[in-house]
Structure formats: structure tokens, C-alpha cells
Predict the structure.
Amino acid sequence: MLVSDKNILAEFCENFCKVIEKHCTYAVVSGFFIISSGRSRGTEDIDLIIERLSRDKFIKLHDSLINAGFNCLQSSDANEVYDYLINNSSIRYISGSDLIPQMEVKFARDKLDEYQLSKRRKEPFTGVDVYFSSIECNIAFKEELLKSSKDLSDAKFLRTVYKEKINEPEVDKIKGLIRSFRLK
């Protein structure tokens, strides 16, 4: 991993996403967005949703990641890794032999994940040049689905940091989608 002014997670995320974006649409979701927005809390992995790919397209993506120095913890066999993803399991990549940090990758599994991908955006405030799921998606997931004390504190933090940017009707719409697709 290269040394720079960025922290190790940000550097890892940017390097990984540079490879991913050549092959598909992606969005970084959950904790890393909150950390990148300035909240002080730890994580050892970054969660990433990617669009569903055919086996051939995924194999090209996987090979590009391997050529860029990333390794998949589940298997070195791209076909086997694809089978994990297609069965709605996540896979994890690391840089070289460093076990931390890790990128946890999942295929979009439903209309809710597809919606997150369609609303992804870069947030200049974070200083990390990757696409994140929207502020509204992050708040909605933490308040409506996850609901742990850490998640509710994360949502409160986002509401404070981004108070001028939050579209409340959008948060409500996403909460409705969460109820429809995840809390049935």
C-alpha cells in the first residue's frame, strides 16, 4: 500500500474502487462513509455493493483486482468467488497479504440495493474520491433497519454534519423501501 496524506482505509478504498469502476457501478455503504465524514470510530472493513454482473464480466473484474495486487480471502478461483456472490454471500478482498483492511463486496440483491446504486455520489467533504451511497440512504438504513445504539449515533452524526444537504422526503422514501424489501 502506498504511503500518503490519506489514512490507510481511504487509500485502500480509493485504490480498490479505481479498479472496480472500470468494470461496474458500485457504492461504498455504511460505516466507512461515516468515518470519512469525520466521526471517530473504528472499522477494519469497508462495505461495497456492486451491480450484478455476468460470470464472464465478474471474472474480468476479479482478474483486474488480482493484477492490481488484491487477493480474495474466499478463494483464488474466480468461478468459485462468483458463486458466493450469486448466492447473496459477500466476499472479502485484501491488499497483498495484509489482512486489514478488507473490502467486503456484495452484489446488489434487490430493488433497494439497485436504488442505492442509482443514488450514489461522491461527497467532497470526505476527501475520499469514491462513490458512496447517499447521505439519505445511510441515515435511513441506520435509523430504520440497523437501529443499534452505534447506528443511531452514526445517523445523528450524519444529520448534524450534513444538516443543510439532507432531503427528508428522500430519507422517508428509502425507509419505505427498507420496510418493503428488508422488513417484510
